[in-house]
Design brief:
The complex is a heterodimer of chains A (about 350) and B (about 325). Chain A has about 350 residues and is mainly alpha-helical. Helix content of chain A is about 70%, strand content about 0%. Chain A has 16 helices and two strands. A two-stranded antiparallel ribbon of chain A has the order 1-2. In chain A, a hairpin with a 2-residue loop joins strand 1 and strand 2. In chain A, helix 14 crosses helix 15. The longest helix of chain A is centred in the C-terminal third of the chain and has 30 residues. With about 325 residues, chain B is mostly helical. Chain B has a single domain, classed as ABC transporter involved in vitamin B12 uptake, BtuC, CATH 1.10.3470. Chain B has 14 helices and two strands, in the order H-H-H-H-H-H-E-E-H-H-H-H-H-H-H-H. Chain B has a two-stranded antiparallel ribbon with strand order 1-2. The longest helix of chain B is centred in the middle third of the chain and has 27 residues. The chains are: A mainly alpha (about 350), B mainly alpha (about 325). Chains A and B meet through helix 1, helix 8, helix 14 and helix 16 of A and helix 5, helix 9, helix 11, helix 13 and helix 14 of B.
Chain lengths: ~350, ~325
């Protein structure tokens, strides 16, 4: 019987017992938690980086490094909620492309900064609503739906732009991706921090957040407990679309131009960030704190490798390995523990 | 269930026929047998990959690393051919299939032994394999003048009026049909995806079945690596970027349930041909090739909607729904 349940119910890293319950958690348990482990990794990488390159320990340099992950992390926050609820959205990068294209087209018509931001965010919301309607309205599997809409959204960008690019954004539009709030703290980094706090509160301290965990752990039970499963999922897709819209505003502003291939492959990096942050890919467990630390780890790794002149595609090997190893290690560790316990 | 599948295949044949007829009113000669043979030849690689993808999807998994596997293997054989022009072609093809199978086995092992969800494994190996193609080549291209003529011409040789590339696709179609409908492995693949619990009770090792499905998908991707490189006469890191989605799309259009356990070789073939006809028709009827991505997106979404309704009508909603969630998670 245990063999059976192993196949049908725990075919993966399902750390369900780690649903965060911070109050009264013993210090020893906290030290063993995924987040602390990951934080240790981040510190080690930070120290290694500062030895590897003399240019690393410089406030402005570090500030530059944050641009590596802030936009992706904004998407990862919403993606984390979606994954915890047992769904996934692979169309996020395509939404960025479409939102950026919409903003670019609007900018050519002479629409001002406020209008551009509005268009970017509403394009994101619209795309999220389409995903949400297909998944929660028509009850379709989110992985295929979002593979389809990924092709559709980016495809529309390609139809509009072809091999051309949009530029000529208003000058004050550059603030979102290039501006600084105080000293070396960029607008993007501050936005990232504020969003991290908001998402942390929503996921871990509200009814809505609780409902997400319940849905991810047992959708059937969630339905019987009176949780509006479809509505929660729809809101989550909407939220993911909105965050992709925000990321599109920041990225477009930072680059100052739009091509249909913008943010190619980001869906992968966002999912990697989420999984690296300790969110169970099978749903039901995870924390925003973990995703924040994972964002720093990935940003530091890519920045450090960049300082060492490692090409981008080789970095992607590290990201891929990081993804598989971080998932495999806890499973192997648990197995060894189980075997020695017997 | 069987009747439903037949129904779906007949429907797809009908849609493809209507599309071809429609396109031929805009461009005379589109429906000519020679042009249709061209389209088939053009779609051969997609058909081969879709058959591998289908086997994996049947077992309730997904292989997103096929295109990266193809790129790496294609690069490896092209570089070998360029460096050792004396090597016989058979050896290179065997090498392509073995490298592909080995990469597939890595996926399969991680899914089987470590029980990492297939989507995570293959998302990871997708970036790793393509990165390895870069490391292997140092970012350089292998151009047609560096490869031997036999290496390049073999898939093009006509046999009985069709190029060898088409014949390879036909042979693999027949082999896959035999494998999935006439062997214990085929039964196990359907059972592992259709109802894992029942499959375990029936004595089927689900993990091992998945492992072999991934090895098969990898081997076919490896073979496609050689075919792709020789057909387009160039090997570079970004070969077939994003092609894994086309293989999934072909399966979904062909009525292969993403939740596993449902689908046929004929469906995968028709799904691939559907995409092939659209791809070949766009330039003919004067639509920008840039529109192709959006069109396949719409087709995938519509196909998923259609599949879901068909499966719902069959009265298996509870099972399907649960399965779908497990895969999507």
């Amino acid at each position: 019987m245990s063999d059976l349940s192993a196949e049908t119910h725990t075919a993966g890293p399902r750390a369900r017992q780690t649903i965060p319950d911070r109050l009264g958690t013993p210090v020893s348990r906290m030290l063993g938690s995924w987040e602390v482990l990951l934080f240790g990794v981040a510190v080690v990488i930070f120290i290694a980086n500062s030895f590897a390159s003399p240019y690393f320990l410089n406030a402005w340099n570090l500030s530059d490094a944050t641009f590596n992950f802030t936009e992706k992390a904004m998407i990862a926050f919403a993606m984390a909620m979606l994954v915890i609820a047992g769904e996934i959205d692979l169309s996020v990068a395509a939404i960025i492309a479409l939102a950026s294209t919409a903003m670019g087209a609007a900018a050519q018509m002479g629409i001002g900064t406020a209008g551009l931001v509005g268009i970017g965010l509403s394009t994101g919301l619209l795309c999220g609503a389409i995903n949400g309607a297909l998944v929660s309205g028509l009850k379709l599997p989110s992985i295929v739906v979002t593979i389809g809409t990924m092709s559709l959204f980016r495809g529309i960008s390609y139809i509009v732009l072809g091999d051309k690019a949009y530029g000529n954004y208003p000058e004050d539009f550059a603030y979102f991706g290039q501006g600084y709030v105080v000293w070396a703290f960029s607008f993007e980094f501050v936005l990232f921090a504020v969003l991290a706090v908001i998402f942390g509160i929503v996921l871990h301290a509200t009814n809505f957040g609780r409902q997400i965990f319940v849905i991810g752990n047992n959708e059937f039970a969630a339905r019987f407990s009176g949780i509006p499963v479809e509505r929660v999922k729809f809101i989550l897709f909407l939220l993911t679309g909105l965050m992709s819209g925000i990321a599109a505003v920041c990225l477009t502003s930072r680059l100052g131009s739009t091509r249909p291939s913008i943010a190619q492959g980001w869906e992968l990096e966002a999912v990697t960030m989420v999984v690296l942050g300790g969110v169970s890919i099978l749903g039901g467990a995870g924390t925003i704190a973990g995703v924040v630390i994972a964002a720093f780890v990935m940003g530091l790794v890519t920045f450090g490798l960049g300082l060492l002149n490692v090409p981008g595609i080789v970095m992607s090997i590290f990201v891929g390995l990081l993804l598989i190893i971080t998932i495999a290690l806890p499973i192997i560790a648990r197995r060894i523990k189980y075997a020695s316990g017997k | 269930m069987n009747r439903l599948l037949k129904h779906r295949e007949i429907l797809l044949v009908g849609i493809i026929a209507i599309m071809v007829a429609g396109f031929s009113t805009r461009a005379a000669g589109f429906a000519m047998p020679s042009n249709l043979a061209n389209i088939f030849n053009d779609t051969s690689i997609l058909i081969i990959l879709a058959l591998g993808q289908m086997t994996v999807i049947l077992t309730k998994s997904i292989d997103l690393s096929v295109a990266a596997n193809l790129a790496f293997t294609g690069m490896a054989v092209a570089m070998t051919d360029a460096a050792f022009p004396g090597l016989p072609l058979v050896l290179l093809v065997v090498m392509a299939i073995s490298i592909g199978a080995a990469l597939g086995a890595i996926n399969g092992y991680l899914v089987w032994a470590i029980q990492i969800p297939p989507i995570v494994v293959t998302l990871g190996t997708l970036t790793i394999y393509r990165g390895m193609a870069f490391v292997l080549s140092g970012g350089a291209w292998v151009n047609s003048h560096q490869m031997t003529p036999t290496f390049l011409n073999f898939p093009r040789l006509p046999v009985l009026g069709l190029p060898i590339l088409s014949w390879i696709a036909i042979v693999i179609l027949l082999l896959m049909w035999g494998l999935l409908t006439r062997t214990a492995f085929g039964r196990a693949a359907y059972a592992a995806g259709g109802n894992p619990t029942a499959a375990v009770y029936a004595g089927i090792d689900i993990g091992r079945t998945r492992f072999f499905a991934f090895v098969l998908s990898g081997a076919l991707a490896g073979l496609s690596g050689y075919l792709w490189v020789s057909r387009y006469a160039v090997a570079y890191v970004d070969v077939a970027a994003g092609f894994e989605l086309d293989t999934v799309a072909a399966c979904v259009i062909g009525g292969i349930s993403i939740a596993g356990g449902i689908g046929s070789v004929g469906g995968a073939l028709l799904g691939a041909l559907f995409l092939g006809v659209i791809k070949n028709a766009l330039p003919v009827i004067g639509i920008s090739p840039f529109a192709q991505m959006a069109i396949s997106g719409i087709v995938i979404v519509l196909a998923v909607v259609f599949n879901a309704r068909a499966e719902r009508r069959a009265g298996r909603i509870i099972l399907r729904d649960r399965g779908a969630k497990e895969v999507s998670a």
